[in-house]
Amino acid sequence: MKPMDPILEVDRLSKQFSGQQAVDDISFSISRGSIFGLLGPNGAGKTTLLRMITGIFLPDAGTIRFGGTPFDAQQDVRRIGYMPEERGLYKKMRIGEQALYLARLKGLSYAEAHRQSKQWFVRLGMESWWNKKVEELSKGMSQKLQFVTTVMHDPELIILDEPFSGLDPVNANLIKDEIFRLSESGRTILFSTHRMEQVEEICDHIILVDRGCKILDGAVGAIRRQYREGLYRISFGEAPAPEQWVSPHFEKVSGQGRELILRCAPSARSNEILSHFIAQGLVIDAFHEVLPSLNEIFIRLVKDTPTTRAFQPSQGNLQNKLTRE
Fold first, then answer.
1. Element (H, E) at 37
2. Are residues 45 and 192 in the same domain?
């Protein structure tokens, strides 16, 4: 069981630039060892929020606590690894030298920096890159190098801003595996992206920000259940006749042949669906609830205006998706 004490606590953080509210009264906390998703469209305030957490920007209002005490940028920055979306690599520098240089800036001795660099280069299949220059690397290769320089000093909190940008599927899975491994070893990951499918697969907990405001906060599974729409997918051993699926407990949404998508009446229970088909003499091969994806929830929420962000489940968007399947 991962410890639940927070490594990072953000309380009512706000920031303006030239009268424009970039971050507006945002609060959240991150448990140690968790993988936490910070989501939002471009311009939502994610990068500004990350730069305040890392001490690059000072907040106009609000507080940040790191490890249970007020955040001290000078002292705590070495306990954080930050991979910004805008990559900070020196193009003319050799890759091995760059890894050593950045590790030394984080306080590692030369011997430890060299050991950690070599170890990570082996882990990510980068051994042959040591004497290459950064300008020789593809975007994906640069991304792997940036990841190594972010985690090499073994930070307690690892902040990754769009870490899979430019990576092919093989290397994306490699980085994903390392994220899981770091989390299992007790390191905390703050993962910022607008790619919902990655968040759904990787993160334990998320917040969604839009126009500088937090509009959603919770565990991934709990959020999907919160916005459930009473949809179920059911598969049969043989195709049911039309009259066999007629029931006051549900309606057919889509599907044909041996698989149907059904919507339960608000008062109905899932076992009433099963009981109905069993009574019809049908063999049920599979049955499960269809929960909305984070992407569907995300799209609906960010389309709402600031005064009408309360989510009202939209059946049409998910129904169209299911029909296409």
1. strand 35-39
2. yes
* Total domains, the chain: 2
> pLDDT digits over 190-236, tens only?
999 877 777 888 999 999 998 899 988 999 989 998 888 888 999 99
Size of the chain in residues: 325
> pLDDT tens for residues 67-93?
999 999 888 888 999 998 776 788 888
Among residues 271, 188, 278, 270, which one has the least CA distance to residue 232?
A: 270
Please indicate, yes or no, whether residues 15 and 144 belong to a single structural domain of this protein. Answer: yes
User: Is 95 a residue whose pLDDT tops 50?
Assistant: yes
Please tell me the pTM assigned to this model: 0.81
Rounded distance between C-alpha atoms, residue 263 and residue 31, angstroms: 36
Residue whose pair of structure tokens reads 């690892």 in the numeric block = 158
Query: Where does residue 313 rank: exposed (0-12), middle (13-18), buried (19+ CB within 10 A)?
Result: middle
Both 45 and 27 in one domain: the answer is yes
Q: Are residues 211 and 245 in the same domain?
A: no
More confident residue, 65 or 309: 65
d(CA 289, CA 169): 29
Choose the final residue of a domain: 197, 220, 243.
220
**CB 157, CB 8: distance < 8 Å:** yes
In a domain, 1, yes or no: no
Residues 216 and 232 both lie in one domain: no
Three-state SS at 288: strand
Same domain, 235 and 198: no
